[in-house]
Specification:
By secondary structure, this protein is an alpha/beta fold. The protein folds into 2 domains: 77 residues, no CATH class; 119 residues, no CATH class. 25% of the residues lie in helices and 34% in strands. The protein has 5 helices and 12 strands. Helix 1 runs antiparallel to helix 2, helix 1 crosses helix 5 and helix 2 packs across helix 5. The longest helix has 16 residues. It is elongated. The chain starts with 7 loop residues before the first helix and ends with a helix.
Length: 211
């Protein structure tokens, strides 16, 4: 199997992952500087991946895309959530089924999947709001495809900031709103300290080759 060359987008993603780890006290400033220095020197994706190894969890990565992947054997085939004049909620490290349906009829539902894990390949999520609403929050590390239909209502998608890698899980969403609303957004990776995140991004500039 040939080596995959590192491109600029992969380096920027690695910087963001390392900065987030520093902000969450997973890396010391010394460890951060060593890894940032190598981010701009390595030539292959395999070398870059080694810089994202989680020091507190052997075999795990600090990269958000890898965090959202779930082994195929743990992924259920389907699930159905219904709120009729009531509500439902999902949050935490939920393993998302291959096909998830959520209906809100004169009620509301909140699907906070910002910490969820997805099977490799395509996950289908069907959201229906009739005189109600469904809010869906996805992690930054997935690729999203949205088809929306609205009648006297709205389907909105905030695409987020982080560009996922090509092999990231795909979430295919079909949203339908009739006198209701479907809201889709992305939650950024959790950070204990925004100040430390900004500091780490600034430190990366010292290692970036001049153009």
């Amino acid at each position: 199997m040939g080596m995959v060359a590192v491109n600029e987008r992969m380096r920027e993603r690695a910087v963001a992952a390392l900065a987030t780890a520093y902000a969450n006290d997973q890396l010391s400033v010394e460890e951060l500087d060593v890894r940032l220095a190598h981010v701009f020197r390595v030539q292959t994706a395999q070398e870059l991946a080694s810089l994202l190894a989680d020091p507190s969890r052997p075999g795990h990565s600090l990269d958000e895309v890898q965090r959202v992947d779930a082994p195929d054997e743990l992924v259920p085939e389907r699930a159905l959530l219904i709120a009729a004049m009531g509500g439902f909620g999902v949050k935490g490290e939920y393993v998302v089924p291959r096909h998830l349906k959520a209906w809100a009829v004169a009620g509301g539902g909140e699907l906070d999947l910002s910490k969820a894990r997805f099977g490799r390949g395509v996950t289908r999520i069907d959201l229906t709001a009739f005189m109600g609403g469904v809010d869906l929050t996805l992690p930054e590390g997935v690729r999203v495809e949205v088809v929306g239909t609205a009648f006297m209502g709205g389907v909105e998608h905030d695409a987020g900031r982080m560009q996922p890698l090509d092999d990231a899980p795909v979430v295919r969403i079909d949203g339908t709103a009739v006198m209701g609303a479907v809201d889709i957004k992305h939650g950024p990776p959790e950070r204990k300290s925004e100040r430390k995140y900004v500091e780490a991004v600034g430190r990366a500039e010292a290692w970036r080759p001049s153009r």
